Q: What sequence folds into this?
């Protein structure tokens, strides 16, 4: 009863995360009464963080101020080149600082960012660029060699930038005066195409912000149940990103969340995951948060050199995308003793803008085979092949 009352104080009338039902494009949905109007609002908030490191990759670093300056210049440059709100801008690259700048520059002008799978072959890239109707493409040198032969078959694509982000000569000092509504497209993320060609899942500003606020609300609920926050958990987040930014987990559940929270995002170098490099990066950057997929955690805890690195800064681990064996949960419990209350797994879809259910802390240790409960504002049913709701304990499709 006390737990229920505590949650109600957070999401109920007058609470910091008050949830109400509103009409969203003709459908009654649970939404937060107080919410950001678009992702542009997050850029404005980040202005207050100045010289704090925001995104780091090896020796390259961008503070919030430097990043936001590049976002303004990139946004202005795209408008100068004829990109308009609603246009599609493709990004084809390994995880880089430039990828992050392009994402936020698109958000600033209401263009839909189209992160293409950096592992795709030429014919797949041609499909994604044509299907999305992308008008401008930013890619790195490695992907340019793959995509260049098919570009003359794409009449909608007007301009390509290799390596560098398109930037105006000067920082205009403010975001372009463009109206961006919460139901405007933020991104088109392509699914794996397991039943045919990849599908472009549309994500709106509203969806990305709802995911962000859902995770913040879960944090507030956990804090209300756990009492005082340990000093190390209250420190500024430094998140190690080991999954691709073109995936919903990398972009919306990690990058966007850390930007909004004023954290630091640490990118691994392009290429295959190397657990020793990851552990060295954790030690050097004092990483506090990490995750991705269970395979990554297995490779770290089983690495022969595991004991040679200081990983004591890590206080939060979260992963999803595949089931995690209960044995992995126990290994993490021993290897990262500070993580106990902040170990989590989650389930979601590209179409849901990331997290739909989450299982964390003591609940996770007592039910390690579960993906948890629905996050706030998300409604879930299990149905049979006819769409009829299934009783507890029965299998079916999650909708």
A:
């Amino acid at each position: 009863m006390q737990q229920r009352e505590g949650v109600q104080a957070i999401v109920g009338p007058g609470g910091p995360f008050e949830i109400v039902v509103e009409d969203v494009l003709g459908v009654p949905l649970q939404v937060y009464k107080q919410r950001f109007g678009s992702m542009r609002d997050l850029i404005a908030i980040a202005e207050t963080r100045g010289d704090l490191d925001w995104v780091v990759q090896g020796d390259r670093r961008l503070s919030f101020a430097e990043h936001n300056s590049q976002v303004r210049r990139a946004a202005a440059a795209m408008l100068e080149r004829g990109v308009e709100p609603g246009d599609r801008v493709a990004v084809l690259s390994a995880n880089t600082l430039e990828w992050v700048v392009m994402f936020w520059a698109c958000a600033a002008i209401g263009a839909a960012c189209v992160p293409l799978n950096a592992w795709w072959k030429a014919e797949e890239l041609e499909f994604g660029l044509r299907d999305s109707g992308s008008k401008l493409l930013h890619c790195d040198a490695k992907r340019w060699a793959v995509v260049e032969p098919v570009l003359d078959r794409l009449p909608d694509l007007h301009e390509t930038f290799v390596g560098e982000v398109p930037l105006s000569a000067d920082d205009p000092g403010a975001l372009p005066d463009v109206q961006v509504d919460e139901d405007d497209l933020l991104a088109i993320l392509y699914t794996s195409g397991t039943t045919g060609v990849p599908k472009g899942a549309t994500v709106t500003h509203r969806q990305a912000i709802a995911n962000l606020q859902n995770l913040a609300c879960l944090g507030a609920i956990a804090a209300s149940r756990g009492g005082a926050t340990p000093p190390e958990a209250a420190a500024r987040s430094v998140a190690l990103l080991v999954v691709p930014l073109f995936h919903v987990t990398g972009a919306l559940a990690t990058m966007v969340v850390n930007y909004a929270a004023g954290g630091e995002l640490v990118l691994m170098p392009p290429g295959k995951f190397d657990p020793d490099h990851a552990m060295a990066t954790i030690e050097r950057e004092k990483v506090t948060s990490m995750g991705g997929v269970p395979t990554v955690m297995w490779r770290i805890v089983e690495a022969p050199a595991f004991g040679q690195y200081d990983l004591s800064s890590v206080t939060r681990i979260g992963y999803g995308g595949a089931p995690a064996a209960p044995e992995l949960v126990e290994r993490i419990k021993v290897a990262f003793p500070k993580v106990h209350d902040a170990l989590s797994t989650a389930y979601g879809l590209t179409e849901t803008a990331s997290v739909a259910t989450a299982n964390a802390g003591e609940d996770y240790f007592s039910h390690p085979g579960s993906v948890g409960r629905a996050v706030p504002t998300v409604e879930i049913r299990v149905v049979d092949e006819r769409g009829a709701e299934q009783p507890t304990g029965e299998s079916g499709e999650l909708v």
About this structure: Residues 205-226 form the longest helix (22 residues). The longest strand covers residues 343-349. The radius of gyration is 21 Å.
